[in-house]
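Sample log: Neutral sphingomyelinase activation associated factor.
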Amino acid sequence: FSSHRAALSFFSRFSLLLLDLEEYYFEQHTAYHVSGGSKKERKIRGSFKVCSRSIIFDPEDLAEPILKVCFNGAKKITFELEVWNKTEDVVQTLLQVCGCFTIAANLQSRLARSSFDKNCFQSVAEKPHMECAVEMVMPLVSNPGHVCITDENLYFQPLNGYPEHVIQIKLHRVRRIYKRRHGLRPLGLEVFCTENDFCSDIYLKFYNTADRDEIYYYIATFLENHVTEHTAESYMLQWQRGHLSNYQYLLHLNNLADRSCNDLSQYPVFPWVVADYSSAQLDMTNAASFRDLSKPVGALNKERLDRLLARYRGMPEPRFLYGSHYSSPGYVLFYLVRVAPEHMLCLQNGRYDHADRMFNSVGETWKNCLEGATDFKELIPEFYGHDSSFLENRLSLDLGQKQNGNLVDGVVLPPWASDAGDFLQKHKAALESQYVSEHLHEWIDLVFGFKQRGSEAVAAQNVFHPLTYEGGIDCDSIEDTDQRIAMLTQILEFGQTPKQLFTSPHPQRITPRFQNITRSPSINSPASDMSPASPTEDSSFEDLTEESRKLAWTNIGIRSRPFNYSTLKMFSKELKDFQRSMSFSNMALSSCLMLADGKTVVCSSWDNNVYFYSVPYGRRQDTLMGHDDAVSDMCWFDDRLYTASWDSTVKVWQCASDSLSSHKRSQFELLAELEHDAGVNTVALNPAGTLLVSGCKDGTVTIWDTGSYGALQQVHCHDGTIHHASFSPDSRHVLSVGADSCMKVIDVQTGMVMSSVKAEEEQRCFCWDGSSVLCGGQSGDLVLWDLLSNTVTQRIPAHSGAVTAMWMSELCTTVITGGEDRQMILWKLQS
C-alpha cells in the first residue's frame, strides 16, 4: 500500500485505517515517530492523529508506512510533538478517550464540550438560525462536528479540522435537498448545489430526526426560485412522456429511494441491460441482445433458480431466496477498485481481493452473475456515464497476478467496444434503446416497486435476506450496545434494499406518442437529453375554439381554451377571455381555491408545496412546504387550511389570511396531522366546517371531527382509489366515487353505506345537492344521476377526455368543468 500513497488524498489514505464503522477521528498534531536505540535514534516527521479506538501516525515521507496503534493492544511506541506546550493537552485527550466506556459516550462528550465557532461567519450581519451536532458522511468515514445555519449560509465545522476548518455552502446556491435514511434510520440530509443528481456537496447525519427536519425545512424556504422537490409519481409521468431519459429517471428514483454515492451500503443501483458480450457488433434491434428485465438477476438462469427454490422451500422462517444482495459495499468497490483502491483495502483488511476474483472482464462478470451460486449483483451508474476511469488502471496499481500468469490491469471489454469510451457510449445507447424503454418498468417493479416485497416478491422470485429490508431487523430494540453495533455493521455490509417507491404496477413508457413533441432544452441539460418546455412558455393561446350546446345544460358562450398542467390561468367571465397566467413549478397543480376576500388564490401541487397567489398584485405571495409527497387536494375554512397528500396524511394549518404577503414561514402553524394507512387523494369539509371527509388510495373513507381532530367513522367502501368525496348540504351523508366505477352514499352518524351504485364507467368528480348528482366520467361526458331511483336522467357530451374537475355555484346556476383534453368549459343551468 505504501507505494501507492502518493496517488491518494488524506481522507482516502485515512479511511483505509478506520476499519471499524464506529471509529472516529478527533484531532491531529505535527509530531515525530522516534525509533531505534539511543545511539541510532531515528525521527520521522508526520501527523499524529487521535481517534476513538487508536492512534494513527501518517508520515510525510510517502515511502514510510502508516502506523496504527490500537488502545486495546498498545505497545510502547515513542512520539515527540513538534509543539512541546501541546503535550499536556494531548495527554489529557488520550486519557479522556481511553477512559470512556463507549465510543458513543466519548463522541458525545467531545461534542458537548465544543460548539460552532461563530468567528467563521462570512459576514458580521449574518443571523444564526440554529446549531447542532452532526456527522459528515463520506464513503467509509463519518466525520463528527457541528452544523450551523444562518440566513445566508450552511456551515459545517468538523471536530478535527479536516478536510477543511469550516465547510461553507451559500443557501442561494442550493438546488436540491433530500432527506435520507442512514443506518435504516431517518437521520440523513443530502445537499446539492449543482444539477448533477449523482454527487452531492455535503451529506450530514444528525443525531435526531427533529434537528434534521428543522434544517431541511429552513433550507427549503430558499429553494422556491430554483427548484422544487419532486415525487416518484411526478418523475414517472415525465419519464412516460419522454421528458426524461432512462438514465435520468433511474438517477431520480435512486435519489428518492435514499441511494447516495456517499453511502456505499445504499449506492445507486442500475440494471444490467445488455446480454451479448461476445459478438463483434452489438445489434440493438435484436431482443436477444438484451437481458430479461422482468426477472431479477438470480432468476435469469433457470437451472440455478431451480436449485435456489429447492433450498427456499426447505428453509425455516424467515425464508429468503438469495443469500446475497444485488447491491452492497463489496459489489460497489468490486467495480470501483481502480479509482477507489483505499476503500477496497479497507474492506479487505489492507489487501486486495484474489486476482482471479477481481473485476477483470465485463463479459466474465456478466457470466458469473448468471451462473455463480451466490453472485446476483446489478450494475452502478458509472456503467452508463461518461468517465471511463473505473475501467482503466490509470493509477498503475499492483492488483495482483491471475492463475494464468497475466497481471490484473484494465478491464477486458467486449469485442463490440473498441476502447473504454466506446464501451460506455454503446452501453448508454443500449440503456436508451427502444427495447429497454419498453421493458424498464418491469425492472423498476422489482427494485423500487410493488414486486420488491410481500407476496408479489415471492411470485417474482425476488426475495432477499430480511437484513436488507427496512423494518426487517429493528436495531433500536437491541439493548446491548455491542450487539446493536454488530448488527448495524452487518446490515451496512450486507447491502440495503431501496425504499419502496411504488405499490402498484409501474406503467410502461409511452415512447412513440411523445417522441415527436418539440421541447426547449433545459438550460442545465445537454441538448441531446429530452427536457420539458419552460413552464413560462405557452404557445397554446393561438388555438381557440368556440363551444355551443343546446341541451338541458348550455355553454355560456365563453371560448374554452387549452391549459398547461403546471400553470395557474385566470379567465374573465364578463370579458369571456384569458387574463393572466402564473407558473409555480414544473409539476402539476392538483387543486386551487379562491379565498373569501377574492384577493388570494391557493394552489396545491405535486411538488409537495402549497402556493399563495395575489390576484391584485399578480404575483406569488408565499409558499407552504408542508408534505413529504404530492399535495393532492385541499380545502379552507375560517383561516384554517386542510391539505391532503400522498404521504398518507391530512395536515391542518392555521393561516393568517391578512398576513399572507409577509413571506415568513412562521405564519403557518401546524395544528394537527391526521394519519392514514394510504395516500390521501381527496378531502372536503361540511358547510359548517365542523366535519372533514378524506378519501384514500386504498378505498377508505374517513370522517373527522375538526374540533378534536379525532376520527368519527372509517369505512372501506371502494375497491381501489377514491377520486372524490363530499358532504351533502345537510351534512348527514357523504358521497364518494372511485376507480371501481361505484358511487357510495355513507351515513355520517352510523358509518353505514346507505346506497351503492355501479356506473357504466369510472366517475372522477361530481357536484350534488343530496339527491341529484352531476358526475364527470372517464369518457368525458357529464352524467346526471337521481340517487333516489339510482338511475341516469341525462347524459351530456362535454370533453374529449376524462372530466377531472368540477365546480358549481352556490345557487346551482353555473358549473365549470375541466378535463384531460386540456379544456375548461363554463356551463349555465336552464330551468
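Observation: The first helix runs from residue 10 to 17.
Observation: The chain has 15 helices and 38 strands.
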